[in-house]
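Task: sequence design from structure.
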């Protein structure tokens, strides 16, 4: 598999999100675990982002997933991709027309989750049978592995709000999580937004284009794999530094960020981080975020047992994940006016 070299432009602000080694959990040492939980708690409070190494997902499986992802995007003819294109009544499958903040993303994607038919997220679509065997098997195996990792990370984060690590597992009995494969081609036909662009949404004609406009993730936790060799195009907004910072992936790492549901569960102890993806006019990029999402019927309320920093016990009114997911997807698929935000509750 070919891979481009990592490029970090001059002028890049070299601040790093925290990196945690999960191998300390293998010691079954309460002191080491407590220290890790405290550090992750701080990272969630300060950044909403962190990286993990020695995470337990086999490198061979990650490499196989990378190969299958690249083969799908680079070798599958457009007419075959269009046969598995997602639609308003089935959000799973290939797409090249997603909107973020009513702005078209400069990428292709492929959404896939656990097998079964979900009344909001639809059911999996797979490429033509002649090509799907290895792709399907590899992606299904990868989803199972990364889902287990996501729940482990969730448990560590949950401990940071004063709960036991499995206290929220019941919210994920019906697993509506999904994997998104992303392909960002070289952007040769448009001006690209400079990495120091402000928090404003750019005018494509005047300011240039982004890979993905600024946004927060809707679910609980995102487990992102991004190749170390590819351009470091992901940026997270640092409230402390008041600017976007590149998230430069460590080799063999996953990048973790919390989502809107964790913000509610923590009662604003943690804030779902704003992030975006830069376009690149010379190099392509692949990434694979796994979105750990609750059951549709899960009622999202304050779960923190720590003293609140807010002026009231619960910052948000109760709502279900299914309602939030449905309304957020409407904004992804079409221009339905202002995109739904967690602040609407």
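Answer:
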């Amino acid at each position: 598999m070919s891979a481009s070299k990592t490029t970090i432009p001059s002028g890049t602000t070299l601040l790093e999100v925290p990196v945690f080694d999960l191998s300390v959990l293998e010691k079954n040492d309460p002191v080491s675990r407590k220290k890790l939980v405290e550090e992750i708690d701080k990272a969630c409070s300060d950044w909403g982002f962190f990286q993990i190494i020695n995470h337990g997902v086999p490198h061979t499986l990650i490499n196989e997933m990378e190969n299958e992802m690249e083969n799908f995007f680079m070798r599958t003819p457009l007419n075959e991709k269009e046969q598995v294109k997602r639609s308003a009544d089935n959000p799973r499958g290939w797409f090249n027309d997603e909107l973020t903040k009513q702005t078209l993303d400069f990428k292709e994607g492929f959404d896939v989750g656990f097998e079964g038919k979900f009344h909001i997220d639809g059911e999996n679509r797979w490429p033509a049978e002649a090509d799907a065997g290895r792709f399907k098997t590899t992606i299904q195996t990868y989803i199972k592995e990364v889902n287990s990792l996501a729940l482990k990370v969730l448990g560590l984060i949950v401990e940071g709000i004063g709960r036991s690590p499995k206290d929220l597992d019941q919210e994920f009995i019906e697993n509506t999580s999904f994997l998104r494969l992303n392909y960002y081609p070289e952007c040769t036909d448009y001006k690209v937004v400079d990495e120091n662009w402000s928090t404003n949404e750019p005018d494509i004609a005047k300011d240039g284009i982004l890979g993905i406009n600024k946004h927060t993730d809707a679910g609980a936790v995102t487990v992102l794999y991004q190749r170390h060799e590819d351009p470091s195009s992901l940026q997270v907004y640092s409230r402390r530094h008041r600017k976007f910072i590149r998230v430069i992936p460590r080799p063999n790492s996953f990048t973790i960020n919390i989502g809107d549901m964790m913000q509610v569960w923590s009662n604003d102890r943690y804030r779902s981080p704003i992030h975006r993806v830069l376009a690149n006019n010379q190099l392509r990029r692949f990434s694979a975020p796994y979105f750990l999402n609750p059951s549709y019927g899960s009622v999202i309320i304050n779960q923190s047992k720590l003293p609140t920093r807010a002026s009231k016990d619960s910052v948000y009114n109760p709502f279900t994940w299914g309602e939030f997911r449905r309304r957020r997807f409407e904004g992804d698929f079409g221009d339905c006016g202002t995109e739904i935000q967690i602040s609407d509750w």
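Residues 1-5 have pLDDT under 50 and may be disordered.
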